[in-house]
Predict the structure.
Amino acid sequence: MRLYGSPGCGSAAVEVALQLAGQPYEYVQTSFWDQNEHFAELKRVNPQAKVPTLVLDDGTVMTESAAMLMFAGTLAPGLVPAGASARAQFLRWMVFIPANIYAMFDLGDVPSRWVEGEATQQALKQKSVEQQKFFWGLMEADLQPQPYLLGAQMTVLDIYVAMVSRWRPGRAWFNQHCPKLATAVALTESHPVVAAVWEKNFGK
């Protein structure tokens, strides 16, 4: 497999999932904001030129980090819950994160894409953060980690939450306002594979 990514972006969680699933891959560092010699290749396989992009051994192209995580989760026991109830919750939250929390980054990162005027752009960014806080609060209220988010075993949902919680509104806010989720995240980040990939991507 060939994984196009960039430090600190959504490719970090995909790296963890592929490693936990025992799947060899080639990591190619490039991005829209780091248009190096590999960028044209990324744009050829994914016209949106977004990272992560994953190209399977047979040439199949995958976009969307959540889809890659769920795909990797099917390649090793335990990374996706086996029971029907836990599986239902897993699918719910794996879709909830990109549809709601992750979507707000697209609004807040470059608000000039969406609205005119500096004041309006700053207001849009702030509103996007407020919405992210609301969505995290819904997850905090619903989930009961035991000790991971969905039970006794770490799944790719844990990895996804651990990564996304590092971004806006920030880990300090997350730890204070989502203590149950934060406990599961701390446990996930203590896993040696997660810790190693996080050091590469986030510096710690």
Q: What stands out?
A: The chain is about 55% helix and 5% strand. The longest strand covers residues 2-5. The CA atoms of residues 101 and 134 lie 9 Å apart.
